Structure formats: C-alpha cells, structure tokens
Amino acid sequence: MKNVVIVGIGLIGGSFALDLKQKYAALTIYGIDKNEQHLDEAVRLGLIDEKATFEFLDKADLVVMAIPVDATLEILPLILDAISDDTIVFDVGSTKEDICLSVKDHPKRRNFLAAHPIAGTEFSGPSAAVAGLFQNKTNIICEVEETAFKLQEIALTVFKDLGMRIRYMNPKAHDKHIAYVSHLSHISSFMLGKTVIEKEKNERDIFDMAGSGFESTVRLAKSSPAMWTPIFRQNKTNVIETLEEYISNLEHFKNLIKENDFDAVFNEMESTNHIKKILKGIQ
Amino acid sequence: MKNVVIVGIGLIGGSFALDLKQKYAALTIYGIDKNEQHLDEAVRLGLIDEKATFEFLDKADLVVMAIPVDATLEILPLILDAISDDTIVFDVGSTKEDICLSVKDHPKRRNFLAAHPIAGTEFSGPSAAVAGLFQNKTNIICEVEETAFKLQEIALTVFKDLGMRIRYMNPKAHDKHIAYVSHLSHISSFMLGKTVIEKEKNERDIFDMAGSGFESTVRLAKSSPAMWTPIFRQNKTNVIETLEEYISNLEHFKNLIKENDFDAVFNEMESTNHIKKILKGIQ
C-alpha cells in the first residue's frame, strides 16, 4: 500500500489519516474535500501530505470515504467509476442499507466494502481528528461477501492494525439496531438540550445549576446537523419506530408520577439499572 | 470545629467526610446510617473515625445530612431536636421546597441551612465516595436568611474551603429550575436505557454496536432508584411539566421526520448546537 486517498477530511477521515500514517510509514496520504479551508487546515495539521482530485483516484490503493451519508450516496458511484481494479474503497457511514443499494449493480461493486466504525466524538472538522480513535472500537462490516477476497483482506488488515474489533452484519439489521443504540441517543440529547434552552432562555445563568449529569446527557446535542440530518433521512423508518417507543416509555413514566404510583416509578428505574452490566463492555 | 457527624455515609456523605478530614486535621468524624454494613465499610475505608447515634448529636459542631429526600423530611426535625444551640446542620438534597417547609416552624430552624451541592456520580454507597468531589461545583443555598449569622458563617466557610461556588436562590425557584437541568436528564436517561434494553433483550450482543455516545446518554440510568424516587415525588409538579415539554419536542421532531421536512430537522439541531457555549461553564 502506497497511496491512500481520504475523501472528507473531518473528524473521522482525519483520524484515519493520523493512524494510517503512524502505522505505515511509507504511505502518502492525499485528501479530497469540497471544503477548501478544511483541506488547507488538514495539510497544516499534518493530517494529509497533499491535496488531490478525482483524477488521482486511479493511483490510489485505498480510498476512505468519510463524508455525510447523503453525499456518500451521490459520490460513491463516481469514486468507483474513477478507481483502478485494484483499489479498495470503504465508507464509514452510520447507515448502511441505502449506501449498499446505491452501488448494488455497479461494475466495481467488488472494490467497495461497507463499514461503520462505531467511533467518534461530538466535534467535527479536521481539527477534531484524534490519534488512536479506533482503538478497541467495534467496526460493523456489511455485505462482506460482495467485496473481492484480496480487497477484503487489505481493508480488514487496516482495521486490525488500527485496533478495531470486527463484526459482520447485514445492512437491514445494522440500520435497525443502530437506530436504537446510536440514532435515538442523538435525538434524545438534542431534544433535551432544546427543552432546557427554551425554558431557560431568559435566565442563562440557570446553567450554573447544571452538573455533570446534564452535561453527559446533552453532550451529543453538540453534534453536526449536516452529518445527522441525512442519517435520520436514510434511516427514517427505524428512527421513527425508536422514537415512538421512547415517547411511549416517557409517557408511561410521567403517568406513574401523576398517579402517585411511586412503587412503580422505583421499579421502572431499578429494572433499568442493569444497564450497568451491559455498558461494562463498552469502551 | 471539633466534631462532625455525617448522617448517611454514601457517595455524598462519604465525599464530605474525605474532604473535611483532609482540610481540618483536628476533626473527628462520626457516622450515622441505618445501614450497618455501610457504617462498617465507612470505618474500614477511613471515611469516618467512629460510628455514632442520635444521643451524640448534642456534641456535634456540624451535622451533614446526606440521605434520600424522603428520609430527610422525617429525620431532619428529629436531628434539630437533638442538637445543641451551637450546632449547624445542612442537608444536600436535590429538592428544597418540602424540606424547608418541614422545619419552617421548628424552634431550631436557625440551626439549619438548606443546601444542594450540584455534585455526584451515578454510583452510590460509601465505596463511591471520592476526594475533591465538590471542587469548582455549584452549591445552591436556599433561605439563607433563616439561618443564624454565626452558623451561616461556619457552613459557608466549609463550602468555600471545599472549593464550591455558592449561589443563593429561593426553594420554589430551585425546584423548578433543577427539574430542567437535572431531574429531566435522569428520566430521559432511564427511559432511553429502558427503550433499548426492551428492544434488544434477546440480542444482548447488540450492545457491541453501542459507542461512547450511547454510554454518555444512558450513564445516569445507573443511578440509585432509592435516591431518585423520592426526588420525583417531592418535585412532582415541576417534573411533570418538564416531561410534557420534552415529550412534545420529541413528538414535533418525529413529525418533521415523518413529513420529510429535513430542512426543519436540520434547523432544530442547529439551533440547539449553541448548547456548546452554554456547557463551557460546566465542570
């Protein structure tokens, strides 16, 4: 592997660039981004060695696509058109079904691996890139059997070298489960932030009363709307289902309080406490 | 100050014990707790020097009450009955209106200071105590003018020595605002945990897919039901109001997705993003 092209040099793309450089000294890392300022910043920060254009893609050994999932739908087929027969392309998007469908019949489908490394922070842009972001993180691979053997191997070696744990799953199952363990958390956090900001808009110093508990539950409300809007669009059906169940649980809890059934309120919380054990496995 | 009695030697009481001992070398710290195992553990961990009973309270200079808010309503008047004229008692409860009302006409009302240090973790019991927990944390004091001058001074000096920032507020306003910035976060977190556990109960390994975002938003679902149930009971009206506004915001967001109004979905998130700036002040 000599030439890597990162398409979208933000938090995730930039973090891949940092780790790849550190693991494989001989690599040259190229960046493509529609945001020229981000590209300049990525060069300045040492994330990429050089800027590139689509014309360069046929010289790439590996292409990492780390752009919002709506842009991936549009750009992925064009990237497959432009690469060589020996190039492996993987994406990192938080939805997988539409993305897999978008290249289902592409003549270079076997050059693509659909991936979702469960890693990130609430920040974005090249300056948010951090070394070691993927260490011990889960990476969900979808439709691995649609990717050519030797290209699977290249991508999987990279994932392993960067410290990821690999899980295989079909795109439909990925999108359904990720709605629960990721997409719903983001909405609950955004709406919690909205509820409190609306209420306290004339009393900003009320946030002096907020502690680390509030900070933890609204952390995700700092996330990028440009990244999350297309995720909710592509995963609409699953996201609506999770929201309906979440709202119904909140309504139920509210009604227990209204009816002074505090034994039931206690039980609701106690039976959720075992999330402790479940979370122990999460880094 | 020579003798301090901690009533309730859990996370908060134990953390007070640790810091008080470290700041004031000459102190002897006594513990009272209905849980004998916790008392033994507190002695073993070096949180308290000795176990005590109510009979000892008239020798106390300072009494810290760190028990669930329903127990505080019951026990606080009995403690005031038992202390000397020169003892200062403060509580640390997450509700303030009912607690202040419960001793409104007590002959020793002036020996009590109503306090709420906004500090803690999702853990509980003596082993959860940590040194320095209150450093740079906000402590809301209610009805300060109801406490005797010289006793105010003792408590405020302790708070200052432990590194807290003091804010004064009336109990009604405290309970209303804390419902938004603390109580609602706990419910949103518990119900998020419940929603995901219910859905994934037959597929426990799905939690492999959960990342730090999920961990952050459900962290508070590890909290103690014995502590939180009486808080929701005492702050029922405010908690129900916050829940209704939160549910209505979630419904609205869901409907925007349903109606494919993704410009509005984007705007909802973008206008909440400035929570970043607000949170900068929170430790």
UniProtKB/TrEMBL annotation, chains A, B:
It is an enzyme of class 1 (oxidoreductase). Residues 2-283 form the Prephenate/arogenate dehydrogenase domain. GO terms for molecular function: prephenate dehydrogenase (NAD+) activity. Its EC number is 1.3.1.12. Keywords: Oxidoreductase. PANTHER family: PREPHENATE DEHYDROGENASE, PREPHENATE DEHYDROGENASE [NADP(+)]. This is Prephenate dehydrogenase. It comes from Winogradskyella pelagia.
